[in-house]
């Protein structure tokens, strides 16, 4: 079992997308890489806390290697847009990959270097060791399961049938 923290805009859609994947064991949405203790959604939305909306993904690397997980991540983000995904704008909607295992840094960096030629603009995805992570309020967890038809800028249909649980 491994963990990775992904920032890709609104965390509701990120969580719903990754929960569909075979090999993902659990997800938790929250706030990552900021400076204050126990931020609230309202505080993060001000753009003054340094936090991004992040989805913590716990996965089985034997079923879903990190390289494949990153391919999925790039399916649902625009890696060349700074501080915005879809209609969501602000530093809390930046893109990033935050790792705990040092060996993951090379995998992430190599992946992004291989992806760069496919884009005409520079990739602006942060690659950092995970810093602070605080789970979001309960009403944000599994939000799209609790709120069918709720807001989501991510096309959840991009998961192919053979990739699903």
Automatic annotation (TrEMBL):
<keyword id="KW-0560">Oxidoreductase</keyword>
<protein>
    <recommendedName>
        <fullName>Peptide methionine sulfoxide reductase MsrA</fullName>
        <ecNumber>1.8.4.11</ecNumber>
    </recommendedName>
</protein>
<dbReference type="GO" id="GO:0008113">
    <property type="term" value="F:peptide-methionine (S)-S-oxide reductase activity"/>
</dbReference>
<comment type="function">
    <text>Has an important function as a repair enzyme for proteins that have been inactivated by oxidation. Catalyzes the reversible oxidation-reduction of methionine sulfoxide in proteins to methionine.</text>
</comment>
<dbReference type="InterPro" id="IPR050162">
    <property type="entry name" value="MsrA_MetSO_reductase"/>
</dbReference>
<feature type="active site">
    <location>
        <position position="10"/>
    </location>
</feature>
<dbReference type="InterPro" id="IPR036509">
    <property type="entry name" value="Met_Sox_Rdtase_MsrA_sf"/>
</dbReference>
<dbReference type="Pfam" id="PF01625">
    <property type="entry name" value="PMSR"/>
</dbReference>
<dbReference type="InterPro" id="IPR002569">
    <property type="entry name" value="Met_Sox_Rdtase_MsrA_dom"/>
</dbReference>
<comment type="similarity">
    <text>Belongs to the MsrA Met sulfoxide reductase family.</text>
</comment>
<feature type="domain" description="Peptide methionine sulphoxide reductase MsrA">
    <location>
        <begin position="3"/>
        <end position="153"/>
    </location>
</feature>
